[in-house]
Write a structure and sequence with these properties.
Elements (H helix, E strand, L loop, with lengths): L15 E2 L8 E2 L16 E7 L9 E4 L2 E4 H18 L3 E4 L1 E2 L18 E2 L3 E2 L4 H16 L6 E10 L10 E4 L4 H21 L9 E3 L4 H5 L4 E8 L3 H8 L1 H20 L2
Parallel strand pairs: 3-6, 3-10, 10-13, 11-12
Antiparallel strand pairs: 1-2, 4-5, 7-8, 8-9, 11-13
Helix pairs in contact: 1-6, 3-6
């Protein structure tokens, strides 16, 4: 994966950022508040949901003496994605928010359980209750924007056999043509980037329907559900523990979102 530069550093303390265009508070840590460098996504609204959180760390992988938790790495990629989308003029709502973890550049991200659901809700332990809470937050916000371009991207990390090296996979609702189009546009970016930066390694990530997923089935906004890799596999772990790789993942997802918005 290309070693993409992280955003330019700003204030060194963790700062809660609220944009006045109706966006929710976003925590970007030392990188501070993003400013729009262009308006490629002006008028677009994105709901970003990182997998698990609160009392549920999701999948956990062993990395030397440390443990890697799905919710921490999914959140870091998601908040990086929020920042780059905002740099292109998008309105962004982070559905899962951590009050003290912004963008982090450590390899091993420490586990905690203090994430909240927008706007300030304690995340329940029950799986279905948690997913319902997340989806309800999206659906309440959805009505604000009328016929605007609105999309939801939810980011997860898979857990499979430790020996299985996987690629990035994309899921959508079987009856959502616009959800399928967004998934395909992001997928095409990943295929091009792998061909350029890892030409000797075939990319086998796919786009497929998976309507059974709760948030895909129940979100009013067309949804793309992304699995970033296998947190138990040593090769896939490099995709997560290197901060430049987490930034590349965010940048590539954003690039696909821009392509989709231009072609809407």
């Amino acid at each position: 994966m290309k070693k993409t530069a992280a955003p330019k550093a700003a204030a060194e303390k963790v700062t809660a950022v609220k944009k006045h265009s109706g966006q929710t508070a976003l925590l970007f840590g030392k990188y501070g508040r993003p400013s729009a460098s262009d308006q490629a996504l002006r008028g677009a609204v994105f709901y970003l949901m990182s997998g698990h959180g609160g009392p549920d760390p999701g999948a956990v992988g062993q990395y030397g003496n440390a443990k890697l938790a799905e919710d921490e790495y999914a959140y870091d990629v998601t908040v990086r994605l929020a920042r780059v989308l905002m740099e292109h003029g998008a309105t962004v709502h982070m559905i899962v928010q951590d009050p003290n973890d912004g963008i982090r550049d450590e390899g091993v991200l420490l586990m905690d359980a203090d994430e909240l659901t927008y706007p300030n809700l304690t995340i329940p332990l029950g799986h279905v209750a948690r997913l319902r809470q997340y989806t309800n937050a999206v659906n309440r916000l959805h009505g604000r924007y009328g016929k605007a371009y609105q999309r939801m991207i939810t980011i997860h990390v898979d857990s499979r056999s430790a020996g299985l090296n996987t690629d990035v996979f994309f899921y959508h609702h079987e009856r959502s043509a616009v959800g399928l189009r967004l998934a395909k546009n992001i997928h095409q970016v990943f295929k091009r980037r792998y061909l350029r930066y890892q030409p000797n390694r075939p990319y086998v990530g796919t786009v497929s329907p998976r309507t059974s997923l709760y948030v895909v089935r129940n979100s009013y906004a067309p949804t793309v559900f992304i699995e970033l890799g296998n947190i138990r596999n040593s090769k896939d772990q490099r995709r997560f523990v290197l901060p430049q790789n987490r930034q590349a993942l965010a940048n590539w997802i954003c690039e696909g979102a821009i392509a989709d918005y231009r072609g809407k």
